[in-house]
Amino acid sequence: MAFEFLRRSKDGGVPERKASATGPVVTWHSAGRVAWSPRDTASLTRAGFMGNPVGYRAVKMICEAAAALPLVLQDRDRRFASHPLLSLIARPNPAQGRAELLEALFAQLLLSGNAYVEAVPGGADTATTLPQELHVLRSDRMRVVPGADGWPMAYEYAVGARKHRFDATGPVSPICHIRNFHPQDDHYGFAPMQAVAMAVDVHNSASRWSKSLLDNAARPSGALIWRGGDGQGVMGEEQFRRLSAEIEENYRGARNAGRPMVLEGGLDWRPMGFSPSDMEFQKTKESAAREIALAFGVPPMLLGIPGDATYANYQEANRAFYRLTVLPLATRVGAALSDWLTGYSGAVLDLKPDLDQVPALSAEREAQWSRVAQADFLSEAEKRALLGLPARSDPAREGQGKAVADD
User: Fold this and answer.
1) Is residue 256 one of the residues assigned to a domain?
2) How many domains is the chain built from?
3) What is the domain extent for residue 257?
4) How many secondary structure helices (H) and strands (E) does the chain include?
5) Which domain of life is it from (predicted)?
6) Is the distance from CB of 251 to CB of 259 less than 8 angstroms?
7) pLDDT digits (tens, 9 = 90+) for 93-117
8) Structure confidence by residue, pLDDT tens digits, 28-74
9) 266 lies in a domain?
């Protein structure tokens, strides 16, 4: 996405430089300036995660499941049992372990569509040394500063009035920016929370409606009709205020449910009932909850949402959850982290989930191993490739880490 045309140098040589013709159009108005996020991430997080039980549980389920996946590191020829990169992921900083770091990373990606990881330099030669620490930064505080070629030339992290600028023009950026696909933004990702903003509002409004019903003894209060001694239906201001305060104190709320009302002369109570449209609020709430779960990729059955019969049983829903949501997310984030971190050393490594250690996929992995093992027309190398394994380990090549003996 480097936004320039291919050019031939004056001395006749052709530089190895790739570019796109759309660069001047995209970056003409934004070169060197901060590209602001189009949605308020903080407000969406408060409403959809901190203030909504369905959104909270969906995000927690995905993050905890993805962070708990066993990870393997391998290159083209071998799989490593120990490696400096694995040690860095296992203990990224003094305050977090692997699970805490990855859970925060996945959560930022789901809630804001963007995740930022900071690398703390580990030595004098930062271009060839792995970082000493890794930190997940809050997405709502980070801004992308695009350069003239469309690529980020810096990342700006703001806390209140104080700002820190990360220079991204070096060989390896100190910030790893992972983002979801956004069809209308060149620098920021699209969050599932943005897609379900309306469903979150509906679900929260329905919860507030139910709370109001409980505060009013789960039914409309009805109407008090005043008939004065002279036949006039108008109360004095002092009478109105005293009556309202008495009802508020003695007859409303859950603790006063069912308490008989004592009326003085001239007062008549007329109860009111629900209309059929009022009773549809619970179904509307369940429909909104289902939309939130589906947007995040969590089968509604796993969240206890009634009325969903998409999957035959809980086990099938759990398998679909891992196969369609957790594994794609963990695989994409693992690939982004390994590509970014190996840029410091130049080694080509692949960090990915170990599918053979995922309990939810044990049945289908066993069937795949059986089918591959019985395929006599395949060579051993082809079988290993189909199972996601590297080529056989070569004891003569130790490399940076210790390879696992696959025999």
Assistant:
1) yes
2) 1
3) 221-272
4) 13, 12
5) Bacteria
6) yes
7) 999 999 999 999 999 999 999 999 9
8) 555 556 555 445 888 889 999 999 999 999 999 999 999 999 999 98
9) yes
